[in-house]
Amino acid sequence: MSLPARRTRPAHAAQPPLCPLDLSTYLVTDRRLSGRLGVLGVIAAAVAGGVRVVQLRDKTAATRDFYDLVVAASRITAGRCLLLVDDRVDVFLAARHAGAEVDGVHVGQSDLPAAAVRALIGPSAVLGLTANTPAHLRAAHALPSGAVDYLGVGVIHPTATKPDHPEALGVAGFGKIARSTGLPCVAIGGIRLADTAGLRAAGASGLAVVSAICAADDPAEATRAFAAAWAGAAA
């Protein structure tokens, strides 16, 4: 499945063009699982390991604390991978206003509607949308062309990082959704290294990983392993 064309910001924008939309190795942060390194330490290790996307996710952080985290993370990721903010469009906009190189937002089904988010973040930012059911796909397909850049599809396996998750899709269920859309699909939810080949063959444009990187003894090496497995699956 081909990826969308690279987005670039208008010539008058204060920030440089976005990195190409490579979704292959995608880290979703988890403060609880990050241990002694902390979230920023895990991000730095993942960047060293070749991560292509970092999504900052923290549902319980105070707004100012999350803003400070986004700005700090942008200093690590700028020019090296995409940095996305989960849910908090306000924090994304505030960080952009402060000059931080933040590339986009990911929203779920219970967050602001994707069309409203696109209107707020502008045409050049990356927008991801969680979609786990045929109804979610129909809603995504009804959006104007270009409103959403990719879909986050899962969970693949049951996972403790999202206790209220829907029924696990497995690789076969993921593949059914991926084949039903022209949008790139990123698999998420309890993903293990051994899932890489099967998910890529099922149509994944990338793997969103939480615990297998955040809780790893060596997050940089764990990221390298996922990147290598992805490349090997392509071969």
UniProtKB/TrEMBL annotation:
<feature type="binding site">
    <location>
        <position position="130"/>
    </location>
    <ligand>
        <name>4-amino-2-methyl-5-(diphosphooxymethyl)pyrimidine</name>
    </ligand>
</feature>
<feature type="binding site">
    <location>
        <position position="162"/>
    </location>
    <ligand>
        <name>4-amino-2-methyl-5-(diphosphooxymethyl)pyrimidine</name>
    </ligand>
</feature>
<dbReference type="Pfam" id="PF02581">
    <property type="entry name" value="TMP-TENI"/>
</dbReference>
<comment type="similarity">
    <text>Belongs to the thiamine-phosphate synthase family.</text>
</comment>
<feature type="binding site">
    <location>
        <begin position="159"/>
        <end position="161"/>
    </location>
    <ligand>
        <name>2-[(2R,5Z)-2-carboxy-4-methylthiazol-5(2H)-ylidene]ethyl phosphate</name>
    </ligand>
</feature>
<comment type="function">
    <text>Condenses 4-methyl-5-(beta-hydroxyethyl)thiazole monophosphate (THZ-P) and 2-methyl-4-amino-5-hydroxymethyl pyrimidine pyrophosphate (HMP-PP) to form thiamine monophosphate (TMP).</text>
</comment>
<dbReference type="InterPro" id="IPR013785">
    <property type="entry name" value="Aldolase_TIM"/>
</dbReference>
<dbReference type="GO" id="GO:0000287">
    <property type="term" value="F:magnesium ion binding"/>
</dbReference>
<feature type="binding site">
    <location>
        <position position="87"/>
    </location>
    <ligand>
        <name>Mg(2+)</name>
    </ligand>
</feature>
<keyword id="KW-0784">Thiamine biosynthesis</keyword>
<dbReference type="InterPro" id="IPR034291">
    <property type="entry name" value="TMP_synthase"/>
</dbReference>
<protein>
    <recommendedName>
        <fullName>Thiamine-phosphate synthase</fullName>
        <ecNumber>2.5.1.3</ecNumber>
    </recommendedName>
</protein>
<feature type="binding site">
    <location>
        <begin position="55"/>
        <end position="59"/>
    </location>
    <ligand>
        <name>4-amino-2-methyl-5-(diphosphooxymethyl)pyrimidine</name>
    </ligand>
</feature>
<feature type="binding site">
    <location>
        <begin position="210"/>
        <end position="211"/>
    </location>
    <ligand>
        <name>2-[(2R,5Z)-2-carboxy-4-methylthiazol-5(2H)-ylidene]ethyl phosphate</name>
    </ligand>
</feature>
<keyword id="KW-0460">Magnesium</keyword>
<keyword id="KW-0479">Metal-binding</keyword>
<feature type="binding site">
    <location>
        <position position="86"/>
    </location>
    <ligand>
        <name>4-amino-2-methyl-5-(diphosphooxymethyl)pyrimidine</name>
    </ligand>
</feature>
<dbReference type="InterPro" id="IPR036206">
    <property type="entry name" value="ThiamineP_synth_sf"/>
</dbReference>
<dbReference type="GO" id="GO:0005737">
    <property type="term" value="C:cytoplasm"/>
</dbReference>
<feature type="binding site">
    <location>
        <position position="111"/>
    </location>
    <ligand>
        <name>Mg(2+)</name>
    </ligand>
</feature>
<comment type="pathway">
    <text>Cofactor biosynthesis; thiamine diphosphate biosynthesis; thiamine phosphate from 4-amino-2-methyl-5-diphosphomethylpyrimidine and 4-methyl-5-(2-phosphoethyl)-thiazole: step 1/1.</text>
</comment>
<dbReference type="GO" id="GO:0009228">
    <property type="term" value="P:thiamine biosynthetic process"/>
</dbReference>
<feature type="binding site">
    <location>
        <position position="190"/>
    </location>
    <ligand>
        <name>2-[(2R,5Z)-2-carboxy-4-methylthiazol-5(2H)-ylidene]ethyl phosphate</name>
    </ligand>
</feature>
<dbReference type="InterPro" id="IPR022998">
    <property type="entry name" value="ThiamineP_synth_TenI"/>
</dbReference>
<dbReference type="GO" id="GO:0009229">
    <property type="term" value="P:thiamine diphosphate biosynthetic process"/>
</dbReference>
<dbReference type="GO" id="GO:0004789">
    <property type="term" value="F:thiamine-phosphate diphosphorylase activity"/>
</dbReference>
<keyword id="KW-0808">Transferase</keyword>
<feature type="domain" description="Thiamine phosphate synthase/TenI">
    <location>
        <begin position="26"/>
        <end position="213"/>
    </location>
</feature>
